[in-house]
Amino acid sequence: MSKTENNQQTNMIQKRGPGPMRGMGQAGPGEKAKDFKGTMKKLLSYFKAYRWMIIVAIIFTIASTCFTILGPKILGDATTLLAEGLTGKASGSAGIDFDAIFDIMVTLLGLYLASLVFSYVQGFIMAKVSQDLSYRLRNNLAEKINNLPLSYYDKTTHGDVLSRITNDVDTISISLQQSLPSMLSNIILIFGIGYMMFSISWMMCIVALVLMPISITLVMIVTKRSQKYFSAQQKSLALVNGHIEEMYGGHLIIKAFNREEASVKKFNEYNDELLNSAWRSQFLSGLMMPLTQFAGNIGYVLVCLVGGYLAIHNDVVLLGITFTGVGIAIGDIQAFIQYVRQFNQPIAQVAQVMNMLQSTAAASERVFEFLEEQEEVKEESNPVHLFDEKGNALVSGSVTFENVKFGYDSNNIIINDFSMHVKDGQKIAIVGPTGAGKTTIMKLLMRFYELNGGAIYIGNKNIKHYTRKELRGLFGMVLQETSLFSGSIMENLRYSKLDATEEEVLEAAKVAHVDHFVRTLEAGYETILNEDSSNISAGQKQLLTIARAFLANPKVLILDEATSNIDTRTEVLIQKGMDALMQGRTSFVIAHRLSTIKNADLIIVLNEGDIVEIGNHEDLLEKKGFYESLYNSQFDLEV
Predict the structure, then answer these.
(1) pLDDT tens digit string along 568-604?
(2) How distant, in Å, are the alpha carbons of 306, 316, 328 from that of 325?
């Protein structure tokens, strides 16, 4: 990359903030979506495939809730029969009608069992829907990852992408499984219980509902105040997690520069912020239920007083108006008190669900933002094929760069006019100072980025006429920054050719001088590399990536500082193996140690994205220009 390119990417990172902090961010409780209605509309579009399952779940939720609502009223009838029987027995008339009470109990048991079954089926259906939806979303996100241009990842941290795939999708899934059925059930409970209370005694219902505005107001005040603290808690948690991740990943550097105290101090700052916001959010959230219960308890007292009076008096005079036939049975008082106790709970739960739906919308918005990101330029509908059915390349390895113009930002071009023709089988060395654009040229060749101008040809066709998959199948690439995956050494070597036989893998390993050190390991080729491959040395990792490229047997080979982590003795041996591999193949070698590319057919000297010199090693030295000063600088010693 050029200096301009490096500065540009640095600016991007600075604008979006430190990576780990942003990377661990996710939609948290209390965080609101920018476009709630639009986001929920997009989310609901995913439900079309499950509409019949959701309809069944809604019906079962309604049935389960209705059965639950009927329970206290039926139980009150049993209490009334029992009270009347005891009163009758005391007065010498008929006693308690246990048969009728038994029938009521059987009916009540049947209702509760039916409610349980319907609730179970509804829960099973919604769990299925939410998990299927999560599966679809993650599949869509995974496909999107592969279709996004690399420029997207230049301005977005990996942690941010991972957070959308994991945390945000989990938030959506949990909300769908719990919030929607809870919302529907609680709304039915509010209206159903209200109706049952009114049917028992409209007078007692008015007394009970007098306190409802107080309860709702308290819930709204608490919810509004707690939202900002929940949001602050989630942001502080992201800072803590990001700091821990960063400190864990760089613990050797921290120890090397004696920065342990500074690291702990910074952690304590973030942790204090988390503590401050967390206890406030949890405290306010915890106040919601006690406050509603307090209002409910006052309601119980008033209901008991009024209910007791109505149980004794059938007629009531209120404000000079006589109301006749308003008396109620003892069992109805019991049922009414149960309804009052139940009535406040769904109000509080609806408020909590609304709060959760806000975070669901925020999480959904982040997911849809990612899914709607602009993808790579679409490939041609009738692409030219590079391989036959047996996997043999149909084109030569000749490469032509024609007036290539490129910038990571279209307003800041870093490669102005790059032209070069490489014959099939030539070994081309690309040299230049750090930031000259050497690696960028290779990324353009593999179409990781789209050109701002000019064209690149392989064979006699523009690379835009090939699919990216087939185009990249022509190349074998070894980078300075090694990339291995968690798994066995054998699996890592086969990554470039999944159908390779064991003999082919071993042959590539021997050519790359990997076989000897692998066999010294206890498990040999079945040795499991950990997440960051830290259980082998940097040089050994680079040897494995070279062997992986050997196994791919590519048409065009790209070596970007491929031996930078290897000792001089091993480098000589590897160079012989690479010379054999490059025989008959077009090869591009990027190197800072110019002594390693003396035998290149052509050396391209770059500076600030442009070719300043071109020729073989001897010709360039004779010119006594930029290459000669670059070559001699590696032997200069500063005293």
Answers:
(1) 776 776 677 677 677 778 889 887 777 667 788 888 8
(2) 15, 8, 9
CA distance 440 to 446: 10
Q: H helices within 372-464, ranges in order?
A: 438-445
pTM for the model stands at 0.66
d(CA 438, CA 559): 11
Rounded Cα distance between 501 and 390, Å, is: 16
Give just the sign of the alpha carbon dihedral 256, 261, 264, 269: negative
What is d(CA 538, CA 67) in angstroms, rounded to the nearest whole number?
67
Distance between CA atoms of 541 and 539, rounded to whole angstroms? 5
Q: Which two tokens stand for residue 493?
A: 């070597």
What is the spatial distance between Cα 210 and Cα 203, in angstroms, rounded to a whole number?
Answer: 11
Contact (CB, 8 A) for 445 and 456: yes
> Is the separation of the CB atoms in 553 and 499 below 8 Å?
no
Q: Identify whether the C-beta of residue 323 lies closer than 8 Å to the C-beta of residue 315.
A: yes
Mapped onto helix, strand or coil, the DSSP state of residue 613 is strand
Distance between CA atoms of 249 and 150, rounded to whole angstroms? 24
Distance CA 294, CA 192 (A): 23
pLDDT at 8: 40
Count of beta carbons in the 10 Å neighbourhood of residue 446: 17
Give me the pLDDT at residue 148, please: 85
Output the pLDDT for position 456: 92
Regions in the chain scoring below 50 on pLDDT: 1-25, 28-30, 637-639
Give the tokens for residue 586: 């077009």
Residue type, 470: E
Would you say the C-alpha torsion 571, 572, 576, 579 has a positive or negative sign?
positive
* CA atoms within a 13 Å half-sphere pointing along the CA-CB vector of 117: 6
Helix axes 98-147, 51-90, angle to 10 degrees: 160
Secondary structure string (H, E, C) spanning 487-528: EEHHHHHHHHCCCCCHHHHHHHHHHCCCHHHHHCCCCHHHCE
CB–CB of 456/444 below 8 Å? yes
Length of the chain: 639
**What is residue 549's predicted lDDT score, i.e. its pLDDT?**
86
| C-alpha count within 13 angstroms, C-beta hemisphere, residue 532 | 6
b/e map of 626-638 (b: 16 or more CB within 10 Å)?
bbeebbeeeeeee
340 contacts: CB under 8 Å, gap ≥ 6: 197, 208, 296, 299, 300, 303
Residue 189 vs residues 185, 194, 295, 343: alpha-carbon distances, Å: 6, 8, 18, 7
pLDDT at 457: 92
The Cα–Cα gap between 512 and 576 comes to 9
- The pLDDT tens digits for 236-246 are 777 787 788 77
DSSP 436: B
Dihedral angle sign, alpha carbons of residues 439, 445, 448, 451: positive
Is the dihedral angle over the CA atoms 190, 193, 198, 204 positive or is it negative? negative
The DSSP 8-state label assigned to residue 35 in this structure reads S
Question: How many Cα atoms sit within 13 Å of 411 on the Cβ side?
Answer: 1
CATH 1.20.1560.10 fits 19-228+287-371, yes or no: yes
User: What is d(CA 546, CA 541) in angstroms, rounded to the nearest whole number?
Assistant: 9
